[in-house]
Structures are given as structure tokens and as C-alpha cells.
């Protein structure tokens, strides 16, 4: 495996892979009740994160000095389940938006390749 040389192709791949990674993390959390946190930084420094019930909650569970202290962290509480459903629905909307963005980037990349091949034929 190696880094993709084209910046545009890297962006398309990042967008698609990030959505897939976040979707898998969401599924893991839903299926097992696991607290999940994923933080991804682009080389330029832009952060993207996903966490359930939140990134902070999952990280605080990882750190021994930050014990669970409220109903939002208890998997059996109504608040927890309500927030989980809300996050899941928001995440699905985010995935759909990223898919559309990926499709747009694919079309742009195809147009660029097409125009490049067309101009190289001349």
C-alpha cells in the first residue's frame, strides 16, 4: 500500500474512506454498546471526529481519572438511548451528504481526466 500521488484523488479517497470508517464505528457502537471515538487529522491539520455517545465521553472513559458520572453514559438509561438514536440519525444524514460529495468529486475527477486525455490527443 502506498500514498496516492494525486491530491484530488487523495481527497476523493479520504472522503469515501472517512465515511466508511465512521459508519463502521457507528455500527460497532450500535451492535455492541461500545463507546467509540475516532479522530482523523488531514495533513493540513483539519480534524474530523466521530464518537458515541460523544468523542469526549469515550475519551474520558479511556482516561482513568475521568469516571462515568451521569445518565448520559449509562447504556440502560432513557437519556443514553435517546441520544444514541439522535446521533445515529445525524450520522446517517452525514453519510448521505458525504456520499453525494464523493459522487460530485468523482464526476469532477472524471471530467478533469477526460479533458486531459482530450487535450493530449491534439
UniProtKB/TrEMBL annotation:
UniProt-listed InterPro entries: TF_MADSbox, TF_MADSbox_sf
GO cellular component: nucleus
Keywords tagged on the record: DNA-binding, Nucleus, Transcription, Transcription regulation
Bilayer-crossing regions: none
Source taxon at top rank: Eukaryota
Alphabetized Gene3D superfamilies for the sequence: Transcription factor, MADS-box
Residue ranges annotated for the MADS-box domain, each copy included: 1-54
GO terms for MF: DNA binding
Subcellular location: Nucleus
One Pfam family, short name: SRF-TF
Cited PANTHER family: MADS BOX PROTEIN, OS02G0164450 PROTEIN
Protein name per its UniProtKB record: AGAMOUS-like 29
Species the sequence originates in: Forsythia ovata
Phylogenetic classification of the source organism: Eukaryota, Viridiplantae, Streptophyta, Embryophyta, Tracheophyta
Amino acid at each position: 500500500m502506498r500514498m496516492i500521488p494525486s491530491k484530488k484523488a487523495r481527497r476523493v479517497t479520504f472522503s469515501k474512506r472517512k465515511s466508511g470508517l465512521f459508519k463502521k464505528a457507528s455500527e460497532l457502537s450500535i451492535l455492541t454498546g461500545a463507546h467509540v471515538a475516532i479522530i482523523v487529522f488531514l495533513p493540513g491539520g483539519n480534524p474530523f471526529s466521530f464518537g458515541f455517545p460523544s468523542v469526549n465521553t469515550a475519551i474520558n472513559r479511556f482516561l482513568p481519572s475521568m469516571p462515568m458520572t451521569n445518565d448520559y453514559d449509562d447504556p440502560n438509561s432513557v437519556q443514553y438511548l435517546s441520544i444514541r438514536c439522535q446521533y445515529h440519525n445525524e450520522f446517517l444524514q452525514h453519510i448521505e451528504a458525504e456520499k453525494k460529495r464523493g459522487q460530485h468529486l468523482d464526476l469532477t475527477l472524471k471530467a478533469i481526466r477526460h479533458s486531459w486525455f482530450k487535450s493530449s490527443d491534439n
